[in-house]
Design goal:
Blueprint lengths: L2 E6 L18 H17 L8 E6 L7 H9 L8 E6 L6 H10 L3 E7 L3 H5 L7 H13 L4 E8 L6 H14 L3 E6 L7 H7 L13 H17 L3 E4 L2 E3 L6 H7 L4 E4 L4 E3 L3 E5 L3 H9 L5 E6 L2 H9 L6 E2 L2 H16 L3 E4 L2 E4 L1 H5 L1 H10 L1
Parallel strand pairs: 1-2, 1-9, 2-3, 3-4, 4-5, 5-6
Antiparallel strand pairs: 6-8, 7-8, 10-11, 11-12, 13-15, 14-15
Length: 365
């Protein structure tokens, strides 16, 4: 099931936890980016018809409806099995939601991150729990009922009590899908950099440590399961039949094409990545040059293992793969991080929390 990804990196403000190539750019850049994006899509020679579309960002819910319609008109396959648009709470109106549905959008992912005001205040998010609730009502009234809500474990001031408050809101709003991400402490986000430098900004010192964040994540796994929203991938949980069809292809090595700055593509053999900077992407496209900045041949066997182990169902290995990876598999089984059932290999519950350690071993094999 092949798919198409469209990058729209424009936001009203840059959140402190964000490590994506997005931001609050000028209106002029947004206009020229729209022109460049349409040029890239129109020039693409389709080798297959996408069954899923995903608009990521940035804040695609702020995309001008004319641009959204123009992009969708260039992508074959309407009606797509799944067409997802990421949205920031508070940017949704009845008119927008109805237009999205009319244009073929049938799934919306809301970047909630937290329902607790104190936690949101230091991230740059401006919404409240009530705004999220209103957005869910607006979308459902417009006929978009397949909703995902994002949460982040590890934000400053987050505690077991406040985390339960966010999970209570999940129970109240009853989405079909929930994504739970552990906050990544790295130099690519302002909050991550502040934590690494022991700085005072964004209340970085109030962020839970790794062990506390892991406990929050584990609490979410249990609570969501009680709600009938089960984990099917490390960060993704869904009611039966509501798993993200588009994201599924990333974990099963299925082809997809990416358009826009910092978008990536995979054709089954090779990975390509577009220019990361929105301005440099525009300069390249409107200057008659390619948007592609990187190309790499895939190591299918090791990547299949790496991505497949992210899935709760695990991965079925061939005899050759078993022989090649026998030593690390046996070591991680003995350590309680992997388990084997028949010829299926999967992470244990503890292994999920230490998955990077496991993945690193197989990537180096």
């Amino acid at each position: 099931m092949a798919g198409a990804y469209i990058s729209y990196p424009f936001c009203s403000q840059k959140c402190s936890f964000c490590n994506f190539a997005s931001g609050a750019f000028s209106r002029e850049l947004e206009t020229t980016y729209s022109e460049a994006l349409l040029r890239e899509i129109r020039s693409h020679e389709w080798q297959w018809t996408p069954q899923t579309i995903y608009f990521g960002g940035g804040t695609p819910s702020n995309m001008h409806l004319g641009l959204l319609e123009g992009v969708l008109q260039q992508i074959p396959g309407l009606p797509w099995r799944e067409a997802t648009l990421e949205a920031a709470p508070g940017t949704i109106t009845r008119e927008k939601a109805e237009a999205w549905r009319r244009l073929g959008i049938n799934r919306v992912s809301l970047g909630v991150q937290s329902f607790v005001g104190r936690e949101l205040a230091r991230t740059g998010r401006r919404h409240t729990a009530e705004i999220v609730a209103q957005d869910c009502r607006t979308l459902r009234n417009a006929g978009i009922t397949d909703l995902n809500l994002d949460l982040i474990a590890g934000l400053p001031h987050q505690t077991a009590t406040s985390w339960n408050e966010s999970l209570d809101w999940i129970a109240r709003l009853d989405p079909a899908h929930v994504s739970v991400y552990m906050f990544e402490v790295d130099e690519d986000s302002r909050l991550g950099l502040e934590i690494l430098n022991n700085g005072p900004r964004y209340d970085a010192a109030a962020a839970p440590n790794d062990d506390a964040s892991a406990e929050l994540y584990e609490a979410a796994v249990d609570r969501l399961s009680e709600l009938g929203i089960d984990r099917y991938e490390i960060s993704n949980f869904a009611k039966p039949g509501h798993e993200s069809l588009h994201n599924w292809k990333y974990w099963t090595m299925t082809p997809y094409i990416g358009f826009g700055s910092d978008a990536h593509s995979f054709d089954g053999r090779q990975r390509t990545g577009n220019i990361e900077s929105a301005q440099e992407y525009v300069d390249a496209l409107l200057g008659g040059r390619t948007a592609i900045a990187s190309t790499a041949e895939c190591h299918i066997e090791e990547e299949r293992l790496f991505t497949g182990l992210r899935l709760t169902g695990g991965i079925r290995l061939s005899p050759v793969e078993w022989d090649r990876h026998r030593e690390p598999i046996e070591r991680f089984v003995d350590a309680g991080l992997l388990e084997v059932e028949a010829d299926v290999l999967r992470l244990t519950r503890r292994g999920v929390l230490l998955s990077n350690e496991v993945f690193q071993e197989f990537l180096a094999a």
